[in-house]
Amino acid sequence: MTKTQYQTAPAAQDSNEVPVGHLVQRLLREHRRWRTRDFPLIAHLFEEAQSAEGAAQPPCLAPLQNAFYRLCAELEGHMNREETILFPAIVNAQAKGAQTETRSPGPSFGSIGNPIAMVEQEHHWETERLEKIRQLAQNYELPENAPEKLRLLFHELEALEAAMHAHTRLESSILFASALSRERKARQAKPPA
Predict the structure, then answer these.
(1) CA geometry: angle at 124 spanning 153 and 17, to 5°?
(2) Mean pLDDT over residues 122-139, rounded?
(3) Of 6, 17, 38, 87, which one's alpha carbon is 20 to 30 angstroms from that of 29?
(4) Distances 60 to 46, 57, 161 between C-alpha atoms, Å
């Protein structure tokens, strides 16, 4: 996995032209990849790095592993909220012509801006967690004689960080901005009561 795989999509010219369904599917694929590939791989690499014979363990390894597991636990709830509440509401709103209020069999939260604001706060916390991991990993810099397993672990952590930042930018700058813009336009187009 390389950082170049996770380039952010260009900003849409008109937020109403964003193919929301395709964008949501891409974000869901990234969630699945993190859950099924990246998180388990990094967890395995932590075990490998700790059990490497003859290699001196960097003092940051245990706190780094704890920070990673905390991030994973928090992300699980975050991804579930996006997948079960926010993404369906955005797709539903686009399908219904961006009505002012989202109406679905699930919870009613009024403006789409309400769950977006909650998720954006979670994105802020995730950014803080990723920064903490980067600090513990000393900017992912290792001495030349560092064991290969440790190098691979740091490479995967850094690639995950880059992927998560690109994912968040895609959500915030394109998907959420598009949903808010559609809702605003629908409100302005609605005849006065």
Answers:
(1) 100
(2) 96
(3) 17
(4) 12, 8, 18
Which pLDDT value is given to residue 17? 58
Phi-psi region at 9: left, alpha or beta (left = phi > 0; alpha = psi -120 to 50): beta
Cα 103–chain centre separation: 26
* Separation of alpha carbons 74 and 122, rounded Å: 9
Sign of CA dihedral 95, 100, 102, 103: negative
Alpha carbon of residue 193 to chain centroid: 40
Q: What is the pLDDT of residues 135-186, one digit of tens each?
A: 999 999 998 888 899 999 999 999 999 999 999 999 999 999 999 998 898 8
**What is the spatial distance between Cα 177 and Cα 98, in angstroms, rounded to a whole number?**
13
